[in-house]
Amino acid sequence: MTYGGVDAPEFGEPLTNLTVPIGRDATFQCTVVNLGNYRVGWVKADTKAIQAIHELVITHNHRVSVSHSDHFTWYLHIKNVQEEDRGQYMCQINTDPMKSQMGFLEVVIPPDFIPEETSGDTMVPEGGTARVSCKARGIPPPRVMWKREDGQEIVVRDQNGSKTKVLSYQGEVLKLTKISRSEMGTYLCIASNGVPPTVSKRIHISVHFHPVIQVPNQLVGAPLGTDVTLECYVESSPKSINYWVKDPGELIIPSEHHEMTVRQKSMFEAEMTMTIKNIRREDLGSYICVAKNSLGDVESKIRLYEIPGNDRHIYQYLDEKTTSDDEYGTEMYDDDDISNNDDNEKSNRVPDRANKWYSNDGKIVVMSVNHAPNVLTATLTITAILLLPTLI
Question: Could you read off the pLDDT of 46-60 as tens digits, one per residue?
């Protein structure tokens, strides 16, 4: 078509639709052939608001600008696109009749959670129902998916009570009925709509229940002088206060003799141990492990008894036992008392007829009966030396 013998202007190619995330820049490109003395204008079609005519910006929107390349390619620039910029944009040529073409600007918005419609951490009694929800907004509308943070399966029960285990669950509301302690943990609510970034929210579900104690060995035997460890396994939520008691009710305080540990195995499982070092006879008896939380308390008993052991340290002296003042005492005796009164020999010494005793270090010392004269001789010699100053 010609106007006054001059080729009429035409659009070189269609106006392309744009999809731009909010906050980014958008640029429409309008290609015109044989523009001549005609002008190119830009209009937002849905509001009929003129954006620009040729090189002059009309709109008061400071984010809008125009440019061109050799009167052939004309551009409409929109910086920092906002949601209100969405709509149809028209590129016009002021011929008679007017020529125009349109392109659509879609402004997409990444997902975001609506705080007032999204659950926080929640607590539910064991056997009850936990209901958590995540409501997300965005353009296009986001899809919501649930996963467990620890990678375990989600247990979903239908109205008939039959359960299904899934790695992920689709939907804004997650409902866990007849919940058990193994379902306690952190759940991830993930919202996505194809516009980065994908967002997620951590929601912790606590399942509360009365403490439970399991004891692997209720009877524990060990030789005196050895170390022994007592064990109790506790399950509780909220976490329990754990301690040990010596029957009938003596609270045991951690010490070098009683070493105690509590090792947390999971959110609701703990292993409590007590090691009794160098068992003495007074350590024998019943011990009670106790667990208490806000829902109640529980205890379990372990009995510690002696095993006659062959692994004690036994020292044998074939010839003579050398004694110290601590074993025999430091009291001095007269010769007449020693020779005439056999009762004095029982002062701090072990009678010669004995074949064993416990020394101060707790070890068993064994002596043969036929060595008694040697010991007695040594004792008399020591006594004579002590009396020497008196005789002089």
Answer: 999 999 999 999 999
